[in-house]
């Protein structure tokens, strides 16, 4: 089992990191941390407001600082989709943890996200979700210890897949 006992969830917006993360934390007996909530709490603003007011580059720096301040053990951590743009943040998260990439095809993600304009998705103006997916997917795979296609799975089935992998590949005691 990794030293920290942390399980990090990475992936695109709409893939289910928060929902799966809460369920997984409960099943593991871990605490749950959503880094998007951490950022909003630290900044006193919603993600979309930070992006609209300060721009993507500043948002990226704010996100990196928030991630580097995370120092927890036995947590399931759901990250923002853009965390993979920061090598420093990802190395910090990966230290002693298992990183699970939750994947879903762009069509599935588009169907799940009904608030594209207000959700706080770090993407360039006019950029499509499909283009963002293509841009980020290689980074998710670079940092992931495990990748699970969630397109046609319920959150509970995703959790069970993660638990099976944690037990068989990483020797988590469940």
Brief overview:
The protein has one domain: Rossmann fold, CATH 3.40.50. By secondary structure, it is of the alpha/beta class.
The Rg value, from CA coordinates, equals 15 Å
Helical run tally = 8
Give start-end ranges of low-pLDDT stretches: none
CATH topology: Rossmann fold
User: By helix and strand content, what is the structural category?
Assistant: alpha/beta
CATH class: Alpha Beta
Into how many domains do the coordinates divide?
1
**How does CATH name the architecture?**
3-Layer(aba) Sandwich
Q: What is the approximate shape?
A: globular
Number of strands: 5
In angstroms, what separates the terminal alpha carbons?
11 Å
Q: Would you mind describing this structure in some detail?
A:
The protein has 174 residues and is an alpha/beta fold. It has one domain: 3-Layer(aba) Sandwich (Rossmann fold). Helix content is 51%, strand content 13%. It contains 8 helices and 5 strands, in the order βαβαααβαβααβα. It has helices spanning 17-28, 35-43, 47-54, 56-68, 87-94, 106-112, 129-143, 155-170, and strands at residues 7-11, 31-34, 75-78, 98-103, 146-149. It has a 5-stranded parallel β-sheet, sandwiched between helices. Helix 3 crosses helix 4 and helix 4 packs parallel to helix 5 (87-94). The longest helix has 16 residues, at 155-170. The protein is globular, with a radius of gyration of 15 Å. The N and C termini lie close together (11 Å). The model has no long low-confidence stretch (mean pLDDT 91).
């Amino acid at each position: 089992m990794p030293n920290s006992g942390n399980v990090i969830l990475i992936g695109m917006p709409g893939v289910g990191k928060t929902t799966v993360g809460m369920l997984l934390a409960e099943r593991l007996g871990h605490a749950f941390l959503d880094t998007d909530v951490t950022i909003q709490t630290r900044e006193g603003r919603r993600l979309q407001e930070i992006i609209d007011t300060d721009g993507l580059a500043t948002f990226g720096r704010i996100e990196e600082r928030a991630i580097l301040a995370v120092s927890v053990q036995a947590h399931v951590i759901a990250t923002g989709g853009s965390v993979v743009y920061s090598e420093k943040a990802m190395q910090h998260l990966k230290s002693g943890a298992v990183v699970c990439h939750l994947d879903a095809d762009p069509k599935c993600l588009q169907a799940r996200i009904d608030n594209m304009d207000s959700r706080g998705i770090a993407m360039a103006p006019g950029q499509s979700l499909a283009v963002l997916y293509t841009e980020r997917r290689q980074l998710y795979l670079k940092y992931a210890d495990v990748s699970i296609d969630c397109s046609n799975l319920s959150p509970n089935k995703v959790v069970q897949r993660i638990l099976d992998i944690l037990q068989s590949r990483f020797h988590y005691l469940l």
